[in-house]
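Why do we care about 3D structure at all? Because function follows from shape, and shape follows, mostly, from sequence. That is the central idea of this module. The next example makes it concrete: a single protein chain, its amino acid sequence, and then its structure expressed as C-alpha cells.
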Amino acid sequence: MDTGIETFDTLLEGTEYSCITIGEKGIELPSYLMQGIKACGYIVRNGVSESWYWDGLTIAKNKRCIYFKKLPLFSITDLATKKRSQALALVRELAKALAVLPPKFLDLSSGILPLWRIWFLTDGGVLILPQTLADLFSSCAIETTRAFQSTGWVHYDTHKPFTLCDQMTQFLYFAILGFPPFLSGETREDAFRPLPVSILPNLQLPEKTIDFIDDTLKLSLTKQRDASGNQESNAALSWFIEQTEGLQWNLEDRDEPRTRDSYNQDPSCGPFLEKQKKRADRKIFWRKKGWIVASVVAVVFLVVWFTGSRIKASLTPPYTAGMSDVQIIDEFYAGQTELDIQKMEASLSGKAKNPASMEVTNLFVSRQTRQAYENISTQIDPNKWIKEGKPAIPEGTYLYGVTDVKIVQTGDNVYRATSTIYTPYSYSDDTTNDEEQPSAAHAFMYSYQQVQEFTFGVSKHGWTVITNITNISVKDLGRFEVETYVPASKSLIAEPSTQTPAQQ
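And the structure:
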C-alpha cells in the first residue's frame, strides 16, 4: 500500500538512526517551518509519557527525511495489512496513549489527528510526532497523499469532543475494509454515508463488533454529546475505551488491503456503491449545473406567465367596453392629463400607436421620483387650475394636461378631436427665447392647440377599439407666465390651494 510516507533505519556518521521520509531528495522545504526551536513529541508506554525529539534532516535512499535515535517503528497504516489481526488492541492502546497527553499538544484544530503523526513501537508503546512535523509533511506532500494521511479522515458535523472517538472507530473500519470510511468523494457527497461493515460477506467478526463500528460512525449529534459531554476530545476517549472493552477481533493479516473499487464487484456491496454513486453524481450535478436548470425553469416560468398574462389580457375587455366612441376619446385625454399610460392605451388595438406615449412616460417617471425622494407632487392639472381661477402654483411644479376637448365625427368610425395642451416646455425648435427668464416668482408655461384624428374598429372579441391616431396639426398658442410661491412646507399637495401667499 502506497501511503506516501515510509520509515527505515540508516547509518549517519557511523551511528544508526531511524528515518521518516518527507519527499524526494530535491523537494524544497518551506523555510517558515524550519525556524525556531524544535517542538517535542511524546512516547507513551503503559500510560506514562516521555518527551521525544527528532535530530535533524538528511537525505537517505534518495529521499528527504527527518532522522532521530533509532526506534523500532511501524505505521498506523499497517492496521490494514500486517497488523490487521491486532488492530483492535493497537487502536485501544493508541486511545489510552492519547488520553494522557496534553490537549494543546494534540492540536485538533483540523478535526483529526493526521496519520503521519501516529507511529507504533514494535516493542510496545506509541510515538506521537509534534504538529510542526505534520505541517512539514503536509506542505511537501502531493494531494492524494495529503488526503489519505489527513483530510480524508475529517468527518464533518461531528461534535468536537467526540472527534477522537470517531477517528479511533474509523481506524477499526480501515483495518477491516482496507480504506478510510470517508476518503471517497462519493461517500463525502452522499452525506458521509460509508459502505456499512454489516453488508460485507463472510466477515469473521462478531455482530457486536460490527454493530459498534457502523453505529458509531453514524451516531447522532445528541448521542455524541451524551457520550463525550464537554470534555477535551482526548479525555472523551474513555467512552471509546469502555465501549470496546468486551469486543472481540479475529481478523487475519494480509499482504495488501482491498481498495474501495474492488467492492464494486461484490454482490453484497456493489448495489450500495452503485446507488451511492448515483446520489453523489446527482448532488454534484445540482451543485455545479443546478443554476443552469434553475435559470431555464425560471425563463420558462416567465415566458408562460407572460404569455398567460397576455392571453388573459387579450380576453379581458378594456374598462372602456360599452362606452361610445366619443367617451373613449375623452378617456384617452383624461389618461394623458393624469399621466396614466395604461388608461390612455386601454382601448388601443395591438397595432395602434400612442403619439404621446414617450412624453407621458417621462413626465410620470419624473413626477414619481420627486414624489418619492422629496415628497413633492410636481404636476398640476390645468383643468383644475383654470377652474380655480389660475392661482399661483407651488415653486418647482408645472402645468401639464389636455383641456377644452371638442370632438367631431368626420366619417365612418373617424373622429377629429381639437384640444388645448399645457406643457412646461416648448414644442418648437426655435431657441431664440431660450435665454429669457420669467419675472420674479413666476414660471414659464406653454400651450398649444392640437388636432388629432381617431379611427375606430372592432376587435376580434367584439370590443370597440382605437385602430389609429394621427396628429393633424399643432398650433402654438404662446408662452405665458404663471405666478409661483414657496410653500410653507416642503411637502406639496397634489391639488394646489386657490389662496395666494398673501391670502395665506
